[in-house]
Amino acid sequence: AKKKGFHKRKLSPVTLRKEAASFRAMWNWGVKAGLLTGPFPNQGLVYPKTEEKPPFQTWDEIQRQLGRGGLSAADEKALWDSLFLTVPQIQEILGHVRDQELQPFVYPMLCFAAHTGARRSEMLRCRVTDVDFEGKRILIREKKRGRGHRTTRHVPLSPFLGDVLRQWFAAHPGGVEVFCQQLFISRSRAKRVNPTVATRNEVHDHFHRALQGSKWAKLRGWHVFRHSFASNCAARGVDQRLIDAWMGHQTEEMRKRYRHLFPHHEQAALMTVFGQAAPVSMANSV
């Protein structure tokens, strides 16, 4: 695994554990079916330790660290993976993309990602009927949170995103999903009879096409908007329970990466302990 990896990348300890768990499940099925005997032979398996991911950081914080030099390519990648965009930066990116000649669904999809924190796969599953303009909220169809059953959550519909989606729906090519391809796309060999939902690879390609040639080309993918959504909510003092509800499938590891962005919450908590403490003179303390 360390030599070959997958897509030229080393397999992470988390992936190795998941693969071993899948293998164990197949083994146990084989035992029940009478095809194998004995317990799963996992004795002696030792997994590499996982590295703690860095906290989410602003563009300027990352640039300062890169400017000091001495970082490996892996270290630089980890830093850019920890990027969260401020609200003005998000607005700047959306303004840049709005003026590009791209597939019509790309701009509304970027706005959707920035204002909901939804995953790429969740956006591709989103249906037109999931957008409730009157109730001012969006239904997000999840896949990760529940085992054996499909779950959903709701995210508030911001006024800006509401306006963007209304304009997009007025030109929507048809179909059930929100983010559909046009029937005819210039320079494309694909022939469509009905509007079809964009694929994961297509939206990944469109993401980078939208930002190529700009300073934002460093952004690694759609997930940066999910990081930014959670981080900006935290920085504005939004209750953690609301962030959890809007994001879905929150883990303590993820919360830890942006918890430092609750400055006034942390200060208020510390004040309850030391806020009334009187300063002690150094002379009196000797």
Tell me what you see in this structure:
This protein has 286 residues and is mainly α. Strand 1 and strand 2 (137-141) form a beta hairpin. The longest helix has 20 residues, at 13-32. It has helices at 13-32, 59-68, 73-81, 87-98, 106-116, 120-125, 159-170, 200-211, 223-235, 240-247, 252-258, 263-274, 282-285, and strands at 131-132, 137-141, 152-156. 22% of the residues are buried. The protein has a three-stranded antiparallel β-sheet with strand order 1-2-3. Helix 4 runs antiparallel to helix 5 (106-116), helix 5 runs antiparallel to helix 7 and helix 5 (106-116) runs parallel beside helix 9 (223-235).
**From the helix content, strand content and strand pairing, which structural class follows?**
mainly alpha
- Spatial strand order of the main sheet: 1-2-3
Radius of gyration: 24 Å
Residue fraction in strands:
under 5%
N- to C-terminal separation? Answer: 60 Å
Quick overview:
This protein is mainly α. The protein has 13 helices and three strands, in the order ααααααβββααααααα. The mean pLDDT is 84.
